[in-house]
Structure formats: C-alpha cells, structure tokens
Amino acid sequence: MNTTSVPRRVTQSCLRLRQIQVVNKPSNFSTTSLSLSSAARFGVSLTLLTPLRPHTQAHITAFASGINSHTKRMNYSGVATPERCYVDFCLIPVGTASLSVANEVAAVQKLLKESGLTYTMHSAGTTVEGSWDEVMAVVGKAHAVVHAMGVGRVQSSMRVGTRTDKKQTAADKVKRVEDLLAEDKK
C-alpha cells in the first residue's frame, strides 16, 4: 500500500461526512483525489468541522507530522509504536533431540514471571501484556533463554494486538465474552 492511499481514503471519508472543509483550493485542484500529501503540495488548507474519531485523528496527525516539506515523502522515523499491546506467542525450539518442549516452556515461564508483566500460559502458547517495548523485549529474551539451553534455532509465531480507544486487558476481553454467554443462559 503506498503512503498516499490510506490518507486519501481517510480524507475522502472525512469530506463525505462533512468533517473537514477544503479552504484555499486552486481552480485546478480536485477534491476527489485529495490526500493529505497533495493538499500540502498544493498549499490547500483543511479545516476540521467536527471532532474526528480518535483513531482517525491519530492517523491524520501521524501522517501530517511525517510529511517532509522538501521531498513530500513520508518520514517514518517519527512514527511511535502504540503505548500498550498484548502478544500471543508460541515459541518453537527447532532441531532438538526430544519431541517434548516442556523444559523450554518452563524456562520461558520463569522469565515471564521475573519480568513482572501480566501473562497467561495456555496449551498452545502464552499471552503477554504490557508496554510495547517491554513485551517485545521479553519475547526476544525468551528466544535468548531457549538458545542458552543449547537450542540452535528458535521460531516464534505471534499475534499482536493494540487498542488506542480504551485500555483493555486480555482478562477483560475474556470476561466480556463470558458475560454474554451468561446472559444466554438466563
């Protein structure tokens, strides 16, 4: 996906919903192809008419702050990672003499306990919650712990989730579904 296609979609959506107004539009400027980068290139101003949803506002702000005024290319060095995340990962030692991975899993669980992060082990992996940097670091350390046990190759399968609209833990997500199921029993 190129850097202008996402903002164009967001900007067009905002135009349709009458959330933004185009100001200082040259006669040869078409709003049907409006993107934040083309607006910046032609000196067009966009005026916010209604509050945007938080994720839309964050996307527009992140994109607009990354536009390099000389080259009109996105500068990704200023894009921050989300504050919090959860990672469901399954670490797989490759090439061990045993089919069992219980010793390696136990070593990783000890690391997770020592990390102080919230985690839940399940039959097919572990879910870890916390700040993006801490969670990603502990997954890397899990690899290092298993390598230190003499395993030459480690693969991980991960699913990463983030939310910016509200703070929600893995336990909150499970409880929400359990509450819905409890309502069905009534």
From TrEMBL:
One of its GO terms (cellular component) is cytosol. Residues 87-178 form the Thiamine-binding protein domain. It comes from the Eukaryota. Coiled coil: none annotated. Belongs to the UPF0045 family. PANTHER family: UPF0045 PROTEIN ECM15 (PTHR33777). NCBIfam families: MTH1187 family thiamine-binding protein. This is YkoF-like protein. It comes from Coniella lustricola.
